[in-house]
């Protein structure tokens, strides 16, 4: 080990380190270290292509616990912000906080039942009919759920328009079932459903509040400022802009979180990351 | 080390971004001075607010992204000036500040700053204003008039109909042709001075600061469409009214020739200019707003890379065919 030449040196107690991180994780860290060295040779202070995807740190080597899966759905792998799954629902429906809350409840119910059925029964189905099964389940759940929602708040539900039946085929429900619930146990699927539902909910309510504040001057019906921002703030482009900037903010926070974790795991403090 | 092999006088032609922007800035400043003759010192206040906001936003963005200071390119100043020249002179100052921040923070910075923006930032800002505050954007003060310096209270100001609105109603504008040509009619601040814009265009083309092929083909096709489908008057009168109204000439010289957002290949520039002209004419005749040039420019900016790809491919194919025939 040459401390003077290499910026990133091998860790001091190697056996204890290897015991903690197994297999492909070590390989990925080695590749990252080698790339960082190469970049430092080129004069860059930090490695620009820091992989901050979920698979880097929540790999198959680490146990997937209920808590981890929930936090994934809520923050780290948010369906709206990082997987672009529910954006059209937010744009079309969530112009007020009331609409957003109603939509989030519907999505939560759909997600829970869909992932329940997918993780228990659709695992052994052939892949060709799995997607139809997800859509059918969602449609069959939406009928009673929609009826309950109409009884609760009919005016808000009327403003959903086409997006109410669109919930059955929306990616938010079917993609999570197909990608996650098919391959995992019931407990983890329920955690994923709750996490993704909560993740969608906080984004929808936040953007619904922003849109309502900007276009009507109230939040959840309580008037805060009476002024209307401008006639055009309720157009889809403004909502997509808000979603984009929220995603950028969350991506920045996620990157800092992962870099802190990476620094904690690798004993060498030469992993220069000044984010 | 460059060896200078020219003989005196040593005329310097920089090609740094700041120098190119500096030439465009000279032209925009001349338009600003013309408009302040007609509207008073309010135009200078507008310019100060807009440029200051643009510079502050650009500096903040370059700090956040840890880049070297990008205010030195003067591109923020150019964006700031072109925004206020495209708005009516009675635009409130808070709206100008908001639009300047929008242009830099939303239409330019998230895409990578100067050279990487896919859409013209001033066109985006004007589009945002047109959608959000149409009641403020289509009120043109009659000239000449001294507007209140800082306040948004425009109760003492008299407004008039612009040539674009008259064309929209298929009626002849109630102004003399010379008044229209010299900008003494209600119009956006700074885009009505067509003689100055012609001189600026000649200056920029001589200094090779803009892509003149785009301007030339855009104006040629636009004149052709205005001649074939007149809205007010016939023949060259229709062409006169159509060309010297709104900000088509300003857009053709300053906005669609932006090197970051326009087509780069030579045949592509002709196609791009023609496409811009067609889209601007369509937006003017069938769009929701009387002057929808900003939306047409944004659509054209989105199409420019595709035009580049198509024209480069055909050139390559032609080379391959020639080689095979030989």
How do you describe this structure in short?
The complex is a heterodimer of chains A (275) and B (326). Chain A has 275 residues and is mainly α.
Present the secondary structure layout.
The complex is a heterodimer of chains A (275) and B (326).
Chain A: H1 14-20, H2 24-41, H3 54-57, H4 66-76, H5 87-93, H6 97-120, H7 127-152, H8 154-158, H9 163-169, H10 171-181, H11 186-215, E1 218-219, E2 222-223, H12 236-265
Antiparallel strand pairs in A: 1-2
Chain B: H1 17-39, H2 42-64, H3 75-86, H4 93-105, H5 121-132, H6 134-137, E1 140-141, E2 159-160, H7 163-168, H8 177-182, H9 194-206, H10 212-228, H11 235-243, H12 248-255, H13 266-286, H14 293-325
Structure, described:
The complex is a heterodimer of chains A (275) and B (326). A two-stranded antiparallel ribbon of chain A has the order 1-2. In chain A, 65% of the residues lie in helices and 1% in strands. In chain A, strand 1 and strand 2 form a beta hairpin. Chain A is built from twelve helices and two strands; from the N terminus they run αααααααααααββα. The N and C termini of chain B lie far apart (43 Å). Chain B contains 14 helices and two strands, in the order H-H-H-H-H-H-E-E-H-H-H-H-H-H-H-H. A two-stranded antiparallel sheet of chain B has the order 1-2. Chain B is mainly alpha-helical and 326 residues long. In chain B, 61% of the residues lie in helices and 1% in strands. In chain B, helix 1 runs antiparallel to helix 9, helix 3 runs parallel beside helix 5 and helix 10 packs across helix 11.
